[in-house]
Amino acid sequence: MSGNPRRCVCPGSYDPITNGHLDVITRANELYDDVVVAVLHNAAKQGTFSPDERIELISAASEHLPNVRAVAFGDRLIVDVCRELDAGVLLKGIRGLTDYEYELPMALMNREMTGVETVLLPGDPAYTHYSSSLIRLIAERGADISSMVPPPVLQPLIERLAPTND
């Protein structure tokens, strides 16, 4: 394994961070000395929140977790981010078999390329049906999402996606 095995990187777009994401980050905080939430973003795509806004929301949602910090990275290979941060572990939450099948080839390739190990952490069943895109979709239609996102995310997301009466 290359890099610091006590530091993990939790990559994602986090647009927005959900309670499912926060569950994985909280559990990573218990397992690792340093948890870097790596916000990856494609500059060619318009997100709901800017990378800086995502960092602010993640920081607010995880302020009670002493080992967690959020950092934005552009559209890069996650193994390059791990090298830059000297992280030996890439930690990803998975919701089910489809996520596992998607993540396994990447985990093997990442290890082959850099020696960085991937830990796949099963999501809490209470949150496995959550995805940022689905939550954004129902928020746009005015549904109650208060149980799906951390409290610091709720109002900014509602304001950003509130249905318009045209």
Description:
With 166 residues, the protein is of the alpha/beta class. The protein has one domain: Rossmann fold. Helices cover 42% and strands 22% of the residues. It contains six helices and five strands, in the order E-H-E-H-E-H-E-H-E-H-H. The chain has helices at residues 19-31, 51-61, 78-85, 97-114, 132-140, 151-161, and strands at 4-12, 34-40, 68-73, 87-94, 117-122. Helix 1 links the parallel strand 1 and strand 2. The longest helix has 18 residues, at 97-114. The model has no long low-confidence stretch (mean pLDDT 92).
Descriptors for this entry?
6 helices, Rossmann fold, globular, alpha/beta, 166 residues
Averaged pLDDT: 92
The largest sheet has its strands arranged as 3-2-1-4-5
Number of helices: 6
Note the main sheet: 5 strands, parallel
Gyration radius (Cα, Å) is: 16 Å
Order of helices and strands: EHEHEHEHEHH
Q: How many beta-strand runs?
A: 5
Count of structural domains: 1
Helix content: 40-55%
Which stretches are low in confidence, meaning pLDDT under 50 for 5 or more residues running?
Answer: none
* Shape call: globular
Enter the CATH topology name.
Rossmann fold
In brief:
The chain is 42% helix and 22% strand. It is an alpha/beta fold.
Topology:
Blueprint: E1 4-12, H1 19-31, E2 34-40, H2 51-61, E3 68-73, H3 78-85, E4 87-94, H4 97-114, E5 117-122, H5 132-140, H6 151-161
